[in-house]
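MOLECULE: protein
FOLLOWS: sequence and fold
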Amino acid sequence: MLQKIEILNFKLENGKVLTKTPLFYQTFGQPIGNAPIVIVNHALTGNSYVTGENGWWNDLIGIDKIIDTNNFTIIAFDIPGNGFDGNPENLITNYKDFTAKDIASIFLEGINVLKIESVFALIGGSLGGGIAWEMANLQPDKFQNLIPIATDWKASDWVIANVLVQDQILNNSDNPIVDARLHAMLLYRTPQSFKKKFNRNKKADLNDFQIENWLVNHGLKLQNRFKLAAYKLMNHLLKTIDITKETNDFAVSARKISANIHIVSVDTDYFFIPDENRETFEILEPIKQNVFYHEIKSIHGHDAFLIEFDQLAQILEPIFNKQKHQNYVNA
């Protein structure tokens, strides 16, 4: 069930003040205070509905799943303005006012309102993982485990470039959400993934290739779920990820994070490329003992974190081991 927290007089990174910010969220599993807390940050087109009927991470979160709702309290916040409450325009006047750090700060405000002192795991994929990096940087002792998946602690030049292309489409196309989604899916999948799925097959009784129909349908589905203002905001946030704004030095910023850091990349990711994550691990390994690198092997590219559930479950299982927490008692 969607719940709401009102955050008053929130100051954005650019200095503007939001008098009232609605933060929507959902909880799953055990009541708050009865079990270890897991915060799940959704990706660009996701929302707080992480498990249950049509939950987007049902393969990982639920009864007897890796993140077991019998043993954990799962909390998922909606990025303010994502429109999951049906009213993105209530918040967005200028989508470029917001940064990933602002969203991270708003989420942390929500955690404080819920009186949560410690979080067992903070996990997120893509944009959600970038926001997770920002949250851990802002409150480095709040989280026991930081698990950023198919993401990075900063927007690379490649990400920034593609955000610009998306922004241009969203502001200049006659059919902005559909057209932007067509382009985005070419970043989220790979040529090998498309070949395996479609193999140049055509739609029955039509001259259209199946890949064309699939892409257009993806665009139309997103258009039905997203308002333009919300999609512009989500896209823009990607290019603002950067935990080094204060230090200009990743090692300095990341060293203070006390959490175990589990970096999960995808070997064929064309968006948040694995080379960047390997470089991050190489920087951290000499200065931080509790940092770990994991890599999903897949032909599917960036979206593998939403497809390769068996591999992701194997990576996460040692972190979310049921036996470790079955006798949890709130202090």
User: Anything to note?
Assistant: The chain has eleven helices and ten strands.
